[in-house]
Amino acid sequence: MKLSQASDYAFRAVLYLAKQGVGNRVDAQTISEVENIPKRFLLKTFRKLAQTDIIESYRGKYGGYALAKDPADVTLLDVVEAVEGPIEVNRCLVEPEACNKQGADTCRIHHALYDVRETITDKLKEYTFAKLLAE
Amino acid sequence: MKLSQASDYAFRAVLYLAKQGVGNRVDAQTISEVENIPKRFLLKTFRKLAQTDIIESYRGKYGGYALAKDPADVTLLDVVEAVEGPIEVNRCLVEPEACNKQGADTCRIHHALYDVRETITDKLKEYTFAKLLAE
DNA sequence: TTTAAATTATACTGGATTAGTATACTTATG
DNA sequence: CATAAGTATACTAATCCAGTATAATTTAAA
């Protein structure tokens, strides 16, 4: 049970942008070098963050990326969901037809895993980038 | 971020054995049918649970499997770890050399993810099979 | 002592996912 | 209009996942 490498890179890259302040743009090359992230991979990951309005992208010469929101309004969960989709924990939580006992109501394991998922998302929500900057 | 299907099957199969009571053996065929789990896959998964002493296996005619411990002493975490290994969250938590900033001490993301991992394992520990049976 | 019914050991397979790379294109600035 | 940035799309090698196959071993009972 693991987050993807893309999420990890995204955490570090967004934290880097947060350090620069909202709206201050930096190009991918620089972030890639400073944070030690493969550049093309970072570009691909950044596109997802831009599509979900966590960061803004600027094309053309002197283009780059900048944090789009107040760091207090961006959490680790926002980044994970943007990069790798929702936290699933178990396929029966997402595809009811995959639940071998169907009844979400009657399956005790299902209940427990639902609780686990909520615990994970709550914890990831606790970590805003404002908090990460402040530490 | 997901648990494997094998873990899910294992949860349901162990709960089934817990229902039978400690030491009461049932054969894989039966469990496979009742819980709707591919038999060969279940056999493979059960071997891991037997190796970690969560269940006992009995070979030969009238063989089968039985819970090896008090259900109060078996948790979802025990089963997950037996079946798919430790909860990792992030590769930098496991392989320090993969941490692009090295310093676990100085990396804020690292700290946060460590906290996330602990939260997950604590929650999975909360669910003993005694508790799951009681609900 | 043979037979049947069970687990064990090992290995294979197809498909999906992951991590990363490549190529061609578009956009903005000076 | 040249240059330096991001965008779109697609490719690839490696790994993991879910499930299957085959042969061997063990045990109980007839």
Automatic annotation (TrEMBL), chains A, B:
Its name, as the record gives it, is Rrf2 family protein
A single Gene Ontology CC term: cytosol
Q: Name one Pfam family in it.
A: Rrf2
Alphabetized PANTHER family for the sequence: TRANSCRIPTIONAL REGULATOR, WINGED HELIX-TURN-HELIX TRANSCRIPTIONAL REGULATOR, RRF2 FAMILY
InterPro entries xrefs: Tscrpt_reg_Rrf2 (IPR000944), WH-like_DNA-bd_sf (IPR036388), WH_DNA-bd_sf (IPR036390)
From the Swiss-Prot or TrEMBL record, what is one GO molecular function term?
DNA-binding transcription factor activity
User: SUPFAM superfamilies recorded for this chain?
Assistant: Winged helix' DNA-binding domain
